[in-house]
């Protein structure tokens, strides 16, 4: 409304320049006047008072001004020939004003462009700063997250290591308890075997003493019987001796079978104990071999990595494993020595039992002969019957008695 002076809805060149100037004023932050000041009115809309150098502006003349009629070509040529008039000066001033306005408009446009560039640059710098801050915060957040994850992994590794150590301690305690239990059982078993051996030796001593007593009695009986009953024995019938031996055989057979069965049971028990001792020794040897293999495996591949990471812990573990291996080796040697001793004792017992069996057989035969002789002594009539029947019993029948028995 301020730039359209003639209110025709169109802008001429001067009105357009005025509108651009008002736009620059408004963009610079200055308030626009409600009414157009006189100094903003273009020169073509002013009236020049004749005879003076001053211009008088009439507000009613702006609305009542009529468009100028074009001059004819002759008048224009005449004006070119005429000297410079006031209108020429006014037109020249108007052109200079337009140039000045154009310069100012260009300067304002350049300033506006620079301001826009400066604002855009500031906005880009602010965006870059915000982006850098966001990236820095993201980097810090990522580093913090990585630290937390690393800390969590370290805690997990520590818990896993403590769990593994606890399992190893439990296994070591269990193995130690099993070893103590096995040693206690072996000690008790060895003591039982020693007690049994002592009992067997005492029984053997008693049997040897009894055997000697029986031998002395047998010698006395044989000497007395041979002196007193030699004539009766020569006439004894051969059929009586097998009957007597048959009776004695049935009686003594059960006793001797019981004794032999007892001896066999003892031998079987000792053999089973020897077999169990051999099995325990083999198990100990296998366990020692397994521990040696583990020691070799632990000493070769784990030295490169474990020694640099946990040298003190690996040294303690290796020392503990070596001590356990030495204890196992010592226990194995002790068990082997004990087993050898038990085997030697068993062989000596078996030899003593065989000797005793042989001596028992000889003593049994001698006792049978003596009993046979003693049975024939209280019955002289029976002996006379045998003699009168003609079935004489030679003296060599007594020597054949062991074969008949």
TrEMBL record:
Which residues lie in Basic and acidic residues bias regions?
77-86
PANTHER family, sorted: EH DOMAIN, INTERSECTIN-1
Q: Which GO terms describe its cellular component?
A: cytoplasm; intracellular vesicle; presynaptic membrane
Gene Ontology MF terms in the entry: calcium ion binding; molecular adaptor activity
Q: Which residues form a coiled coil?
A: 91-183, 318-359
Which keywords are on file for this protein?
Calcium, Coiled coil, Metal-binding
One annotated GO biological process:
clathrin-dependent synaptic vesicle endocytosis
Q: Where is this region: Disordered?
A: 50-86
Q: Does the keyword Transferase apply?
A: no
Give a yes or no for keyword Metal-binding in this entry: yes
Which superkingdom heads the taxonomic lineage of this protein's source? Eukaryota
Residue ranges annotated as compositionally biased, kind Low complexity, are 50-61
Q: Which PROSITE patterns match?
A: EF_HAND_1, EF_HAND_2, EH
The EF-hand domain sits at 1-26
What organism is recorded for this protein? Neotoma lepida (Desert woodrat)
- The identity of this protein, by name, is EF-hand domain-containing protein
- Ranges for domain EH come to 1-47
